[in-house]
Amino acid sequence: MKRVNVGVIGFGTIGAGVVKILLKKRTLLKKRTGIDICLKKICDRDFSKDRGIGKVPQNLQEKDWRKVVNAPDIDIVVELVGGIGIAKDIVLSALKNNKIVVTANKALLSEYARDIFSIGTPETNLFFEAAICGAIPVVKDIQEALVANRIKSLYGIVNGTCNYILSKMFEDTLEFEVVLKQAQKLGYAEKQPGLDIDGIDSAHKLSLLSLLAFGKYVPPETIPTEGITNLELMDLLFADEMGYSIKLLAVGNDTKQGLDLRVHPALVPYEHMLSSVEGVFNALYLQTDEAGDMMFYGRGAGRFPTASAVVSDVVDAARVIVSPDVPSARQEIEFSPRLSEVSCRYYVRFTVVDRPGVLAKISGILGKNNISIASVQQTERAKAGSNTVPLILITHEAAEKKMKKAISEIARLDVVKKEPVVIRIVDL
Amino acid sequence: MKRVNVGVIGFGTIGAGVVKILLKKRTLLKKRTGIDICLKKICDRDFSKDRGIGKVPQNLQEKDWRKVVNAPDIDIVVELVGGIGIAKDIVLSALKNNKIVVTANKALLSEYARDIFSIGTPETNLFFEAAICGAIPVVKDIQEALVANRIKSLYGIVNGTCNYILSKMFEDTLEFEVVLKQAQKLGYAEKQPGLDIDGIDSAHKLSLLSLLAFGKYVPPETIPTEGITNLELMDLLFADEMGYSIKLLAVGNDTKQGLDLRVHPALVPYEHMLSSVEGVFNALYLQTDEAGDMMFYGRGAGRFPTASAVVSDVVDAARVIVSPDVPSARQEIEFSPRLSEVSCRYYVRFTVVDRPGVLAKISGILGKNNISIASVQQTERAKAGSNTVPLILITHEAAEKKMKKAISEIARLDVVKKEPVVIRIVDL
């Protein structure tokens, strides 16, 4: 039986999960694949911390990542250090040394796509299933199962932290800040939660999804990105009354006019599958030309779900190694600018002074900007001692630029007391 | 560039879809895979019928399947004849001639697993993604993405016809027979619908799923199978009031006591993702040891969704051909008997005479059989001129054998006027 040797760099939560599976399931993997996948080295600066997987044999431990990357008998380098510092050196050095690289590092891949994808090619020497949606095989399914398809649109719930917070706010009728604190205590949110709740992590993943699904690369920092920090409980409750849940979506549309990529909270109709994705779960909804609509759902984070995806990549990499004739031609990746003009329906919540004539002023500005109103809801939910009330508008389809202009004009009215909350309605 | 030659046998709905994709997307597939996948022959007895994909070049047409299976320059044989007659000869002859076989034929594979899987091996020379859940990559995801996992349980909505009928009954408040006739008119149900509505097609798929997910083969005819023909609209309405939808499920549990496989209608709680699967869509929900819970959702039938899966198999087969070093060791398939004793909660609807003392009689029999009642509902829904009313019971967890015994005893009471409707509650 052929043997393939693996070096795992980074012995944190995910790294320890991968190590545990590779050690525990070596025989099972042999039986299932016909290849002996052998864990040769585990690299970390510190092995004293208990990783909850028992003792790691001394002879597997290595403190210098360069030794792993340069070892002639290591075939596959698994990078699980994270971040965009040393991880970049590890991935690039390993690829240059003709190792196959497996990584879960979405920040690195999406921000340094030009450097990395010029020498690393999915399905050949760079595997990153765990970088997007954890255990869910979105990379494999887009590349292999949907190989005969043009993907027209994708809608992803790709950040478990945000989805947990939004689910919990609604379920327990709690405000954002309260749930965020709970989530931090439970380990579902980082102490510095910006990467998640500001939508940046979702933009990283969307950049990679665009590359896979549309063959087009858009740097994550150029993707219009909104987080969930200005959502209030009442938005979830109003949306619920109207038959919607609110989700942080990563949206991609490959249109004739160009590529439309964006990350933002969205009202998703209850009839749609995506609105049932609760808690820390992730999902990717795809619209394709041959296969029709599809959805893939599962755990987007966590030690073993993520490690499960890493190990499936290691197995695919091992198959490439034992059969080096696999053709390496891959779809060329276009580096693509994105579409600037998109339109949709909007949910807007204004906090206004409870006085006649306010609606007339607001609707006047909207009308001037060619935005027409589909419905208005003015429910008395003002707290005692306050003279403001929420005013909810649903618009008909409106262009993004016009909407932004109208909203900033309305926000300057003296009867409008807080920054308006604007949420796109995603009509699926 | 390496070229791989394909022969498609069976030029019906799916066959014509595969032919169209292979011809239209040859260049795209070249770009994506680095292999030239060349359609060499299309085989059918009759090419005069318009298949809605335009003219097929004369030189591709072949009427004798043996010529395709024996052609030295054909690498991949795609069997889309269907049924278990000639299709069996085609698949076995092609495998014996060292062709790689791609098929969508669940009846053939599940009923003749012993003959076929003794020479055909998934991932090596026998591909059948399209046989289960159409476009949804359940075979690939179980075998490859979840390679590091033990699958504990699976719950599948694997028959689009049944799911369409149940969805439509509830949505339009119509009885089974009415919706079945509509579905037949729309082409969603066959004129002889037994294979679908009696659950047989689901049992075929479950037999294959068991083989993939648990590595254990159970002949489909030994899987306890119930269809949807005795469900009435009121069952869907009662279930709805209690917070459930009713779905025809294919259930598999790999327990320490043995394998539990079954096909039957089930109450699925609204909070669960599977209850959102509507219309002709299919879904497979998996519980795994490392990756946690997952669900795959999409079109389970139809020309292009099914053809999309067939073409993805053709591409995987082509990769095996151009790199013949892919290891052929696969997990051994166990031929397995199934677990006979399972228990669950039950929904039971009795049609009883509207008279005091009826509930006492029924609950007496249940109690004698150690089945305890969780709730009772006796809503007045009897039609005018009838002296019977529906009596709905929800039981606590009860063993299947005891339940059957109790129900047959109750059915013989003179106050019970119709065969009781018994539906399992699947607590996910």
State the main characteristics.
elongated, six-stranded parallel sheet, 18 strands, 3 domains, ten-stranded mixed sheet, Alpha-Beta Plaits, Rossmann fold, Dihydrodipicolinate Reductase, domain 2, homodimer, alpha/beta, 428 residues
Q: Can you characterise this structure?
A:
The structure is a homodimer of 428-residue chains. Chain A is an alpha/beta fold. Chain A has 3 domains: 2-134 and 302-335, Rossmann fold (3-Layer(aba) Sandwich); 152-299, Dihydrodipicolinate Reductase, domain 2 (2-Layer Sandwich), CATH 3.30.360.10; 343-425, ACT domain (Alpha-Beta Plaits, 2-Layer Sandwich). Chain A is 35% helix and 26% strand. Chain A has helices spanning 13-24, 26-33, 65-70, 86-96, 106-111, 113-117, 138-145, 160-171, 176-186, 194-197, 200-214, 233-241, 303-322, 358-368, 400-411, and strands at residues 2-9, 35-43, 61-62, 76-79, 100-103, 126-127, 151-157, 216-217, 244-255, 258-269, 281-288, 293-299, 334-335, 343-353, 373-377, 388-395, 398-399, 421-425. In chain A, strands 7, 9, 10, 11, 12, 14, 15, 16, 17 and 18 form a 10-stranded mixed beta sheet that branches. Chain A has a 6-stranded parallel beta sheet with strand order 3-2-1-4-5-6, sandwiched between helices. A two-stranded parallel ribbon of chain A has the order 8-13. The model of chain A has no long low-confidence stretch (mean pLDDT 92). Chains A and B meet through helix 2, helix 7, strand 12 and helix 13 of A and helix 2, helix 7, strand 12 and helix 13 of B. Strand 12 (293-299) of chain A pairs antiparallel with strand 12 (293-299) of chain B, so a sheet runs across the interface.
